[in-house]
């Protein structure tokens, strides 16, 4: 087209099937169009070269506020919710984010509706409204977002570093904003904020500052025909050039714009300018001491270094990150872990700004390490000096080791670049838009992959320069722990200064170091090291780098040519079906054409969280706690052994859940079986259980448990109390804490022994990807042999075993439980509301496993949630501005039949749930419940009058999303694995009954639904006359929990600040089985005593992809949304 100038397209890997076209429009907008033939959706993103760095000091947060306001209508589409309503109706979603330098907007929608969505989206940049009414309301949303952030340690620690900065430097600006920085209560203040908003938009939202990316299945010409006429009319708004022509607010905006350093790819590099106050920088090193919200023992060494943004392929900090963060033998991590001082270590840029980098070594200490933190500092600084000497040796031609490591990084990066299949268009668009802004179109996909590098291009000069700056005189040392804070409070050090950060009011100490520490750490003559690090070396060659990237010889030739994502996924084949030992499932990949594979081993073993009482498996809190520690110990113990595998693109995880032992490995197929066998072999031995690893793991779990209530947000606590009632076996955090405190090293050995001694075990193994049937059989044979050998010849006797897992409790029709608790987090201002509706009809399991009633019910509830989401958000979040977090979603829980009832029906029953969640400091949780109920009461009328076309649009959108092709092998594996572990034991040898095609069946049913089906599902699930629900409310400091003054409504039971009452009520509830619930008497406290014999729940939950047990803390997270 004549209105565009073609730009160089990005360099892409050989597994990338997408086509790209880059253009510059006549008005200066950079556009990248992407044809993704496999996508069923179209996405777009627009990145503006403006962020919080350009905020005026008088109005912190104005860039972030502008991001919020852009979504609230345009001249062509003035409706505030028109954008979100359209996306919701057509299977879409949207979001936006503001950083210091960029603001990015994005959306995704079903491909056939993309042009209309793009038209709405483009008008936010061409002609936004920025209404006066929206200004006041949306400030409340920004304020709610800020209040949510105040309890996050990462945010608090960031604000402390900014407080240490030079307040004239852009980096120190407060980026989020709040009601005090953007005041709108008074009419005059509101006018000023809106004027500042409009001026900011005129100044920065200009065509030359904009990158637009659109990706979808449409051809490039079609995408271009959409984008050019929509973004081409965007004009730079008039903004005075001369100071004397500007208003006061325009002058403020113009001045603040000069604070932001050059950021775009075409801009020249900015000079090195560390952001900290001159008096601090001239007095390095300095000790920063912080009191965290969550329990941690963190030690961080931070070094201001020059920016590397302009040299992504030759970044010396990337090399330093690899060397200082390495976890293999003879690394700083290995030495310090072997000494029992640390549990984790990472290194890299904390900030990568245009004017500086802040390189950090971030370390988690053990209790022993907290006392010897100076030894840890000493080892890190010794290794920094060692690296500098290695650089000098390389410069003088005396060592080639750095070049060898550089070549290894190049080789691995090229493999990753070429052997990675594309992800979703929704993920691509924003990241590509930001990368184009930073690196230009040609390097936007390849920056950082070192594709043009070789042994001769190692940045030796920069490496020497940077390592010479990893010294005490250029260092901030941060200690973040309760013990460090207590030490500083009690210290008589005259140099200590107690400071208070401005925005979050976080206190921190700054202090100097003793001379003897400085002499030791700097390696001064005559001073011995606190801990000798002379044995440390550079990393050895990585033995896990793939030897071959060839595709399996068993594949047909057409499957080797390239990806075939549109091909339907064949179900895995059952190669071994041993009634005593286990099953082997296998699928040779014929869709992705990548040399990758995935293997999973699930060993059903009730001993992980149960003991036999009178011949029946019963939940045992001691065993549950011991299994949690055992898994943590093992993962910690194998860190050094398997670190090279992680670097080479292999990953593994081993967990002990209510279901047993679960091992998952994924990555390049060449070495995958070796890794899986290594991990399994090491676990079956007990040599990894050492006192040092035990102490570290126990300390980590105990700290997390002890600070659970004091460190998390109100909505996390609300989910925790709900889960404690419905799907937990434990007596709560306090009981778990008590059980964990009592554990000894001998208990862990005993738990390991009992897991292997249990004869009632069964193995399910899935291997899929670039792996032949023979390789799968070999792996299964070797792994089962390892398991049998570990049992020392003891036979298995599991023909009638119970398959353990989570158990969900069932509420009766009309039952409502209100859980009311006060947050114990002293920093939490917000209150939270979580409403969970439990369907009376079991969820759909599969065509041959469920009734038509279950299929219709599940389909109806999924579609109802799809329709409900936008109007609820619009009412409670946009109009009433109750809080930053307002959401509703379909959820699913899974219930395994208790041991004593294992013969009475299906082993696994899924349960459909509808969940409403609100986090707010505007009104108290009781009022949030009232507001939510008022809307839900109206929603039935909305449903009654909704045009058929709109219902059909939602149905089409949802069914299309369900049928969206899987694009990643890991996703395919987890989907199949979840079905195997839920239903394979039930179907037995009738493999044809496995519900492999559930998504197709559900999508077809959704398309058949009538309005009356939705109304029926709504009435029996949500309508007060029939519903069963839990309302979990946690009060923050803004609205503390008050004593009950009103009588509960009929069928409503209230539990206030009592975990014991939750446990008592839980004992009165029956397990959720596969029968529709019948009307029965509502729950009542007098029934608790009568039902104490009910089996305790299993302590974990299947989550979305299957066999993943929740840890004690992870149980507080919401169940996986479908």
From TrEMBL:
Cofactor(s) this protein cannot do without: Zn(2+)
GO biological process entries: peptide catabolic process; proteolysis involved in protein catabolic process
Keywords: Hydrolase, Membrane, Metal-binding, Metalloprotease, Protease, Transmembrane, Transmembrane helix, Zinc
SUPFAM superfamilies: LuxS/MPP-like metallohydrolase
Keyword rRNA-binding appears in the UniProt entry: no
Residues annotated as domain Peptidase M16 middle/third: 462-738
Matches recorded under Pfam families: Peptidase_M16, Peptidase_M16_C, Peptidase_M16_M
Limits of the Peptidase M16 N-terminal domain: 31-148
Top-rank taxon: Eukaryota
Classification via PROSITE patterns: INSULINASE
Residue ranges annotated for the Peptidase M16 C-terminal domain, each copy included: 194-391, 743-891
Family according to the record: Belongs to the peptidase M16 family.
Protein name from the UniProt record: Peptidase M16 N-terminal domain-containing protein
Species for this entry: Entomoneis paludosa
């Amino acid at each position: 087209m004549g209105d565009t100038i073609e730009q160089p397209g990005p360099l892409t890997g050989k597994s990338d099937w997408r086509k790209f076209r880059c253009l510059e429009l006549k008005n200066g907008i950079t556009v990248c169009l992407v044809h993704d033939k496999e996508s069923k959706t179209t996405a777009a993103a627009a990145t503006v070269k403006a962020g919080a760095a350009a905020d005026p000091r008088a109005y912190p947060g104005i860039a972030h506020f502008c991001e919020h306001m852009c979504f609230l209508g345009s001249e062509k589409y003035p409706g505030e919710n028109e954008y979100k309503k359209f996306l919701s109706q057509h299977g879409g979603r949207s979001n936006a984010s503001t950083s210091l330098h960029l603001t990015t907007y994005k959306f995704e929608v079903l491909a056939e509706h993309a042009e209309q969505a793009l038209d709405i989206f483009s008008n936010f940049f061409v002609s936004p409204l920025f209404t006066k009414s929206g200004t006041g309301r949306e400030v409340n949303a920004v304020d709610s977002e800020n209040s949510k952030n105040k309890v996050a340690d990462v945010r608090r620690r960031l604000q402390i570093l900014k407080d240490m900065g030079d307040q004239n430097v852009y980096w120190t600006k407060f980026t989020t904003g709040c009601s005090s920085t953007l005041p709108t209560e008074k009419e005059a203040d509101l006018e000023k904020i809106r004027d500042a908003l409009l001026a900011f938009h005129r100044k920065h939202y200009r065509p030359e500052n904009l990158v637009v990316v659109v990706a979808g299945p449409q051809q490039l010409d079609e995408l271009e025909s959409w984008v050019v006429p929509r973004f081409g009319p965007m004009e730079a708004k008039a903004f005075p050039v001369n100071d004397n022509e500007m208003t006061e607010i325009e002058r403020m905006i113009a001045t603040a714009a000069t604070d932001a350093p050059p950021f775009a790819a075409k801009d020249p590099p900015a000079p090195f300018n560390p952001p900290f106050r001159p008096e601090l920088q001239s007095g390095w090193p300095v000790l920063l001491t912080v009191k965290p919200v969550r329990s941690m023992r963190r030690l961080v060494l931070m070094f201001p270094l020059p920016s590397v943004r302009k040299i992504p392929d030759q970044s010396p900090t990337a090399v330093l990150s690899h060397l200082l963060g390495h976890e293999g033998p003879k690394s700083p991590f290995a030495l310090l872990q072997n000494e029992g001082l640390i549990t984790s270590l990472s290194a890299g840029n904390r900030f990568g700004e245009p004017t500086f980098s802040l390189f950090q070594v971030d370390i988690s200490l053990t209790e022993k390490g907290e006392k010897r933190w100076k030894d840890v500092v000493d080892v890190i600084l010794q290794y920094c000096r060692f690296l500098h000497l290695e650089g000098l040796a390389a410069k003088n031609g005396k060592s080639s080791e750095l070049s060898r490591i550089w070549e290894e990084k190049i080789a691995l990066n090229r493999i990753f670049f070429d052997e990675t299949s594309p992800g979703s268009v929704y993920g691509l668009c924003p990241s590509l838009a930001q990368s184009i802004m930073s690196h230009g179109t040609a390097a936007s996909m390849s920056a950082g992959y070192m594709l043009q590098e070789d042994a001769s291009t190692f940045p030796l000069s920069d490496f020497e320069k940077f390592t010479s700056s990893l010294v005490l005189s250029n260092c901030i040392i941060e200690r973040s722990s309760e013990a460090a804070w207590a030490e500083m409070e009690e210290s008589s050090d005259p140099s200590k200064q107690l400071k208070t950060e401005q925005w979050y009011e976080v206190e921190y100490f700054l202090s100097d170091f003793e001379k003897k520490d400085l002499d030791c750490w700097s390696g001064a003559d005559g001073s011995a090291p606190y801990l000798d690090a002379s044995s440390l070396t550079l990393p050895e060659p990585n033995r896990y780098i793939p030897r071959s990237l060839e595709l399996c010889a068993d594949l047909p030739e057409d499957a080797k040519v390239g990806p075939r994502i549109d091909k339907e996924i064949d179900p895995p084949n059952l190669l071994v079906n041993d009634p005593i030992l286990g099953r082997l499932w296998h699928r040779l990949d014929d869709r992705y054409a990548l040399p990758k594979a995935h293997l999973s081993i699930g060993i059903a073993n009730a001993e992980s969280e149960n003991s036999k009482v009178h011949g029946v498996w019963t939940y045992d809190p001691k065993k549950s706690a011991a299994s949690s520690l055992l898994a943590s110990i093992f993962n910690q113990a194998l860190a050094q052994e398997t670190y090279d595998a992680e670097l080479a693109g292999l990953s593994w995880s081993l967990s002990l859940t209510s279901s047993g032992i679960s091992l998952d490995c994924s990555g390049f197929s060449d070495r995958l079986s070796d890794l899986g066998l290594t991990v399994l072999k090491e676990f079956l031995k007990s040599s990894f259980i050492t006192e040092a690893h035990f102490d570290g793991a126990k300390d980590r779990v105990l700290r997390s448990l002890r600070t659970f209530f004091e460190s998390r947000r109100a909505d996390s606590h609300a989910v925790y109390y709900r889960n404690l009632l419905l799907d937990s076996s434990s007596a709560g955090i306090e009981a778990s804490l008590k059980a964990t405190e009592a554990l000894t090293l001998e208990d862990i050995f005993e738990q390991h022994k009992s897991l292997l001694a249990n004869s009632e075990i069964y193995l399910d193994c899935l291997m899929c990807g670039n792996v032949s049937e023979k390789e799968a059989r070999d792996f299964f044979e070797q792994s089962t042999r390892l398991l049998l050998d570990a049992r020392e010849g003891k036979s298995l006797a599991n023909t009638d075993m119970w398959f353990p897992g989570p158990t969900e409790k069932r509420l009766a029709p009309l039952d409502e439980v209100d859980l009311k608790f006060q947050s114990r987090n002293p920093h939490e201002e917000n209150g939270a509301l979580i409403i969970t509706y439990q369907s009376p009809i079991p969820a759909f399991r599969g065509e041959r496993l469920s009734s038509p009633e279950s299929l219709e019910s599940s389909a109806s509830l999924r579609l109802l949630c799809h329709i409900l989401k936008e109007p609820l958000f619009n009412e409670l979040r946009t109009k009433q501005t109750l809080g930053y977090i307002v959401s509703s979603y379909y959820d699913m829980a899974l219930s395994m039949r208790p041991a004593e009832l294992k013969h009475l029906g299906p082993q696994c029953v899924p349960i459909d749930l509808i969940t409403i969640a609100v986090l707010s400091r505007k009104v108290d949780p009781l009022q949030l419940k009232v507001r939510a109920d008022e809307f839900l009461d109206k929603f039935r009328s909305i449903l009654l009058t909704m045009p058929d076309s709109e219902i059909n649009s939602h149905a089409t959108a949802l069914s299309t999303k369900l049928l969206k092709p899987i694009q990643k092998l890991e996703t395919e594996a987890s989907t199949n694995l979840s079905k195997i572990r839920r239903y394979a034991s039930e179907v037995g040898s009738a493999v044809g009954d496995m519900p492999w095609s559930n998504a197709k069946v559900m999508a077809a049913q959704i398309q058949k639904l009538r309005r009356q089906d939705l109304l029926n599902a709504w009435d029996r699930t949500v309508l007060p006359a029939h519903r069963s629900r839990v309302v979990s409310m946690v009060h923050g400091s803004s609205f503390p929990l008050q004593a009950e003054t009103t009588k509960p409504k009929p069928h409503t039971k209230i539990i206030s600040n009592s975990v014991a009452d939750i446990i008592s009520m839980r004992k009165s509830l029956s397990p959720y089985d596969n029968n529709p619930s019948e009307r029965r008497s509502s729950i009542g406290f007098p029934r608790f005593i009568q039902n104490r014999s009910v089996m305790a729940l299993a302590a974990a939950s299947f989550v979305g992809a299957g066999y993943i047990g929740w840890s004690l803390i992870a149980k507080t997270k919401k169940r996986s949304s479908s």
